[in-house]
Every structure is written in structure tokens, then in C-alpha cells.
TrEMBL record:
Name of the protein: Ig-like domain-containing protein
TM regions (residue ranges): none
CDD domains (alphabetical): IgV
Topological type in the membrane: Single-pass type I membrane protein
Domain Ig-like: 14-121
A GO cellular component entry from the record: plasma membrane
Length: 153
């Protein structure tokens, strides 16, 4: 008795979903009070339904890692400054940060979870938020001068 293995025809075999995630730019600068858009785009030509993918944004800084957005929804309590923009079905899952503060500095990562559980993460975008240091120094005319100082760690 011969054994036969049945395989579906090549046209009906499920294709693996290969996804690429691109974050641009690698570095972004924003001053306090500004709005910044951290761009993240993914491309998955073999993925049947891009709208079924899950998006997660997280930030890494000197305090560690902090989740900002999970399952396509902002998870920060009482925070409407950070949200996803763009069109998921078009592969645009950019992150918007309104009213930037100095505490927003860090490296932001966009991660996409495929239906099979595989996670594909972008290379990250480093957000630099220069702060205002005020130096007072007296001149001969008794006027004071204020200078902006950017602190780079």
C-alpha cells in the first residue's frame, strides 16, 4: 500500500506574512510645547489583512522602558498628548506627541505584532528635547542676558 501526502496546489497555500517596519528619521528634535510626529511605516505585501495587525509604541530612556500605545490604543492614564495617527490599512502607524516636554526625550520604538504572534520592531527614533537653562550674568550696564542651552547626553 503506497502512502500519499496531499498538498494544496501552490496557488492556495497560505503565504507567510513577511513584514518590514521603517521608522524615520533616526533622530528628531522638538522644543517644549511643540508637536512632533514620529513616523513609522510597515510594508507586508504577503499579509492578507494589514488592519488585523497590532501596533505597540514604547519609549526607552534612563528610567527604563515605558509602553505608550498597545493594541493600537494609547495606554497612558490621563494622557491625550500621545496617540497614533495615520492609516493602519495603508501601513502608516505614526505616533503624535502634542505639547512636548523635556520628559519626552528618549528612543521611541514602533513594534508590529503579526497574527501568528511574531513581533517586528523598527530601529527606533531618538527624540531630543533641549531644555531652557537660564544663565544670568551681569554686564557693566546692569542688564541681564538669557541664553538657551542645549544639553546633550
Amino acid at each position: 500500500m503506497a502512502q500519499m501526502l496531499a498538498f494544496p496546489p501552490p496557488a492556495t497555500r497560505p503565504e507567510l506574512c513577511h513584514l518590514s517596519v521603517t521608522q524615520t528619521p533616526a533622530k528628531e528634535k522638538a522644543k517644549e510645547g511643540e508637536t512632533v510626529v514620529l513616523k513609522c511605516h510597515f510594508d507586508g505585501p504577503q499579509c492578507p489583512s494589514l488592519s488585523e495587525l497590532m501596533v505597540r509604541w514604547y519609549k526607552e530612556d534612563e528610567k527604563g522602558q515605558m509602553d505608550l500605545l498597545e493594541n493600537n490604543v494609547t495606554i497612558l492614564p490621563n494622557n491625550c498628548r500621545v496617540f497614533m495617527s495615520g492609516d493602519l490599512s495603508q501601513g502608516d502607524v505614526s505616533l503624535v506627541i502634542l505639547n512636548v516636554t523635556t520628559s519626552d526625550h528618549g528612543i521611541y520604538f514602533c513594534a508590529i505584532t503579526l497574527p501568528d504572534g511574531k513581533v517586528v520592531t523598527g530601529d527606533g527614533t531618538k527624540l531630543q528635547t533641549p531644555f531652557l537653562d537660564i544663565f544670568f550674568f551681569q554686564t557693566n550696564s546692569s542688564h541681564y542676558s538669557i541664553r538657551n542651552y542645549k544639553c546633550h547626553k
